[in-house]
């Protein structure tokens, strides 16, 4: 793949990943605030279920989105042309542990959701 096209694709996928992080953090901050300060409001019918559903489904959506971005960015390491692959940056990019990043993504999101669900129930 041409270096300019590769950089454009990888840059766009990195931007996609950054785009989901703020909504994810804000949503879970809201959930934690609701758990910590809204105990009386959580006792209403269905509110706890709604918050739990939002935590699980929103996190699943963010996790899938981020995993796809990490996969595509990792695939970019395999599509480098010779000049880029032989550069210091290219060699560093090629040895990045993208599988570990994907595992960390799933693990961290899962732990956040589990902690929220434990606090809710």
Domain count: 1
Q: What is the global morphology?
A: elongated
SSE string, helices as H and strands as E = HHHHHH
What is the β-strand count? Answer: 0
Structure keywords:
87% helix; 121 residues; elongated; 0% strand; mainly alpha
Description:
This protein has one domain. With 121 residues, it is mainly α. The termini are far apart. It is elongated, with a radius of gyration of 19 Å. The mean pLDDT is 92. The chain contains 6 helices and no strands.
Write a short abstract of this structure.
With 121 residues, the protein is an all-alpha fold. Helix content is 87%, strand content 0%.
Explain the layout of strands and helices:
Elements: H1 3-37, H2 39-42, H3 47-78, H4 82-85, H5 88-94, H6 98-120
């Amino acid at each position: 793949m041409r270096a300019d096209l590769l950089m454009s694709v990888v840059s766009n996928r990195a931007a996609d990943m950054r785009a989901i992080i703020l909504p994810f953090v804000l949503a879970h901050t809201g959930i934690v605030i609701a758990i910590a300060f809204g105990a009386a409001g959580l006792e209403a019918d269905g509110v706890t279920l709604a918050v739990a559903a939002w935590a699980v489904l929103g996190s699943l959506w963010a996790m899938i989105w981020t995993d796809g971005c990490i996969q595509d960015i990792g695939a970019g390491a395999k599509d480098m042309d010779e000049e880029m692959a032989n550069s210091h940056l290219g060699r560093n990019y090629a040895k990045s542990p993208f599988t570990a990043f994907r595992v960390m993504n799933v693990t961290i999101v899962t732990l956040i959701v589990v902690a929220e669900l434990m606090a809710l129930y």
